[in-house]
């Protein structure tokens, strides 16, 4: 066995040792009971007498070299393992920033709408998304033959033909008026469902905020005043409003409310279809037939009601041109609010 070759070999081998396990493996290979050094020593009888002292010296220095290499490596390994243990507590390391979540833009706009009405004395009530046909239609004076009753415009529950996913928040008018006495001033945020094909302005599910007020002597001018405060608070005090005659079965008279286009300020642009006006909600004076259904004396009490789409308000407020952006959970969109 060539001792010089062994010396070269141990140098490269020790440089690859980096754990207590591999160091022990190294030690046993050379200094163990059946290790290389023992084998070398046992060959001494086969060596010429005069060569033995030199050979003995070489074996000795090999042994010393091995011992000192092992000792050095042991120190190095124990230092690096101490460093590893200390690492999680290195207070000099930069911290991991926790990103704060935020409310979905639709939740923010819903909250903003409700808080404007709360400041005017309205309370917030919620109702179920699965409704009875009665609350969604009949109680609201929507006749049997009305097209919106048909399955085409409403999701009916398969096994419960008189139950459906509410197509508007107006059924909560019925629920509240059945269980509370006037005076009433209530806003109702919530999800509604319609089997519309999804495109840039339609979704099978969207959000509405309903509002209504019932008391003695409530007039159309009260509706106008309240909605004017609302529209100017949410869109800015320079916008104009107009009430355009419309039809809803549950209000009489009924009106749709437009605001002057917030993009072109009424001059006419692509957002308002060159009309200068944007529709924001439906409204009217509660129909006497609705009061009859909930046993409120329609000779004594009057009231108004309105309903708006939250997506529409949010799209106008922020200049969003595709309703689908609200539902895709794309952080690039959501982080802007
Ligand atoms: N429920 C109506 C809709 O979804 C909106 C509305 C509510 C109109 C209350 C008048 C009064 O279109």
UniProtKB/TrEMBL annotation:
User: Matching Gene3D superfamilies, A to Z?
Assistant: Bira Bifunctional Protein, Domain 2
Describe how the cofactor binds. Answer: Binds 2 magnesium ions per tetramer.
Q: What class of enzyme is it?
A: ligase
One of the entry's Gene Ontology molecular-function terms is: phenylalanine-tRNA ligase activity
- Cellular component GO terms, alphabetical: cytoplasm
Reported cofactor(s): Mg(2+)
Keywords attached to this entry: Aminoacyl-tRNA synthetase, ATP-binding, Cytoplasm, Ligase, Magnesium, Metal-binding, Nucleotide-binding, Protein biosynthesis
- Location (main, coarse): cytoplasm
Catalyses: tRNA(Phe) + L-phenylalanine + ATP = L-phenylalanyl-tRNA(Phe) + AMP + diphosphate + H(+)
Protein family (similarity comment): Belongs to the class-II aminoacyl-tRNA synthetase family. Phe-tRNA synthetase alpha subunit type 1 subfamily.
The record describes its quaternary structure and partners as:
Tetramer of two alpha and two beta subunits.
What is the official name of this protein in its record? Phenylalanine--tRNA ligase alpha subunit
